[in-house]
Every structure is written in C-alpha cells, then in structure tokens.
Design brief:
The longest helix has 28 residues. The protein is built from nine helices and two strands. Strands 1-2 form a two-stranded antiparallel sheet. With 252 residues, it is mainly alpha-helical. Helices cover 70% and strands 2% of the residues. The chain has a single domain, classed as CDP-alcohol phosphotransferase transmembrane (TM) domain (Four Helix Bundle (Hemerythrin (Met), subunit A)), CATH 1.20.120.1760. The termini are far apart.
Length: 252
C-alpha cells in the first residue's frame, strides 16, 4: 500500500501512460457530430425538417474537421478511426434516410421504407470498404475517392429537400425514393469522385482560397438551401466530369 503523503491521490500510477487532454479534441468533435445527427432525427420527428437538414450539414462539416485535427495534433488512433466510422454510419446512413422518410416518403410507406433500407445498407457497405481500403496504399485515392463518400452521399440524398425549399416544387414520392436508391448505388460504385484531401494550390493563391471559403460559409448561413443545392449540383458535375475523362483515357 502506498502511504506517501507527498503524492496526490489522483496521480497516475507509475506504469500508466499519460495523455494530453488536447489530443481528445478530435474524438470530441466526432461525438459532437453524432449529437448533431441524433438531434436531426428529433427535429424531423417534431416536423422541423429544415433544422434537421442543417444539423446533418453541420455533422458533415464536423466530420471533415475531426480527421484534420487528429493529424494536426498527432493523435490518430485505431479507436478514433472506429469512432469516426460508427458516427458516420449514424449521421450519414441512418439519419438522412429517416429524415427523408419522415419528410416525403410516408405516403408510400412500403416503397419508401425499402428505399430507406437500401440507402442505409449502401452507406454501411461504403464505410466498410473505405475502412478496409484505408489500410492499403492506393495512389488514385490521393486526388479522388472510389464511390461517393458517406457525407457527400447524405447531402446528395437530401437534394429533394433543397429543391422544394428553393423552387416550392415537392417531387413525387416515387422519385424521391428512386433518388435515394441511386445515391446509395453511387456510394458503393467504383466511380471516381472528387477529393480535396490532398489537393494542392499555389502559395500565392492561398488568400483567394481563404476568402472563397469564408464566402461559401457566409452563403450557407445566409442562403442555405440555394447554396446547398448549388454545391450538390457542382459535386455531381465533378463526378460526371471525372467519369467522362476516365472514359476518354480508356478509349485512347
């Protein structure tokens, strides 16, 4: 028994590894993203779909932040990777599917629920493939992803909500369900999709990129639906452009 009064009672044992509290920040961001996603379900159940969609967008932003924080703080770990993946499945697989179901698919309960299940399973398979593939070096992953990543898939799946908010046009329920299935298919496909993970720019262009990022955030805050619709359309255009370029290279 240790009777040394000079040692604080809560001090770590002699063989216990010390951990800087700051290194817990990436995991905290992942948990905050999960809380945003779960709160989105509550908002959708209460009929506030607009808040639910914005919370999913917030979860996507936090998801892009936690990995970068982990690399900056050199606190990457196997537990952190698993935590991030589990949060992604809830936030971008389960939550968007339920929000869309509560918003526009309850009239077609059978077909709509099938679309929900297909989308969620596709997201799960996409994340499982990413987890396995991240352990192997793939030179193509430097500038592109294989398949649509789950955060982008969630934002794409919610495009019918953006369209309804911007134009006042509520798409038919069958079309919403088919769109969900199509986005799920893109997530598990072998399509090459845009990635900004390792994109580089000239140092002289950095100020302009920062100003553009600020303008984008301001646009999302001020005109959320039009901005989200524009971003989603631009992303789809990028996917199509990469696919056409690869087809041309294959034909050459």
């Amino acid at each position: 028994m240790d009777d040394d009064p000079s040692r604080p009672a809560d001090a770590a044992g002699p063989g216990e590894r010390q951990l800087l509290i700051l290194r817990l920040l990436p995991n905290l961001v992942s948990i905050l993203a999960l809380c945003a996603g779960l709160t989105a379900i509550r908002q959708a159940v209460d009929g506030n779909v607009n808040a639910a969609v914005l919370l999913i967008a917030l979860a996507a932003f936090l998801d892009g932040l936690d990995g970068r924080l982990a690399r900056m703080l050199r606190s990457e770990s196997a537990i952190g990777a698993e935590l991030d993946s589990l949060c992604d499945f809830v936030n971008f697989g389960v939550v968007p599917a339920l929000v869309l179901y509560l918003w526009g698919l309850r009239g077609e309960m059978a077909f709509g629920w099938i679309a929900v299940l297909i989308y969620a399973v596709c997201c799960m398979l996409r994340l499982a493939r990413f987890n396995v593939g991240s352990r192997a070096a793939d030179p193509d992953e430097k500038t592109t992803f294989t398949g649509v990543p789950s955060p982008a898939g969630a934002l794409l799946a919610l495009m019918p909500v953006y369209v309804a908010q911007v134009t006042g046009l509520h798409l038919p329920e069958e079309l919403i369900a088919l769109w969900m299935v199509a986005v799920g298919g893109m997530m598990i496909s072998r399509l090459r999709t845009p990635s900004l993970k390792r994109a580089t720019i000239a140092a002289s262009s950095a100020p302009f990129v920062l100003v553009g990022a600020v303008a984008a955030v301001a646009a999302v805050i001020t005109y959320p639906w039009a901005t989200l619709l524009l971003i989603s359309a631009a992303y789809l255009a990028g996917v199509i452009w990469i696919a056409l370029r690869r087809l041309r290279r294959g034909a050459a």
